[in-house]
Design brief:
With 199 residues, the protein is mainly α. The protein contains eight helices and two strands. It starts with a helix and ends in a 7-residue tail after the last helix.
Length: 199
Amino acid sequence: MAERLLQAGLDQVVPGGFQVASAGTRAMVGEPMQPLSAEIVRTFGGDPDGFAARQLTPKILRGVDLVLTMTSGHRGEVLQLDASLLKRTFTIREFARMLDVLDRRAADNSSQPAAVVPFPEAASDDESRLAANAAFWRGLPARAAGVRHLSLPADASENDIVDPYRRSSEVYREMEDQLAPAIVSILRHARLNAPATVD
């Protein structure tokens, strides 16, 4: 669900600028998205069609810029597969809080809007601008980690998202309530830092 919602939102901000993929630590390999999850994805403008669950492997993790997990336990499992991802792996809720801190700092410390990103003047064509955007985002995990201490929750459980798999619709609503604000924060940060279009 997070994969499809993030991809749909990021495609609106920077078409073709991001690739979002998901895998499970205990996946029911090949299974489609659960009906209640698919309904939520459709409600928020994503497309659940064609989804097939897959198991997380070291090969999938190779070359990724950022790993977002649903729980701290999942984060630990990712790091067991590839410890080199330590500074690029976060739970989605903690990452969203870090982006909120970065956005507040940018707004407080700048006379310009937070949306202004110093892309090179030479990056006027689409390909160059996408490359500049990619470089900016590849540096984001390090910038986010630098404000982790300012975004710690009162309770560590606030980093996690409940797993609703084969549970009641109430648990799906709880999951939605936990996940939606994190996705909104990530998409807001992307929008604020998207390269300006050239007329």
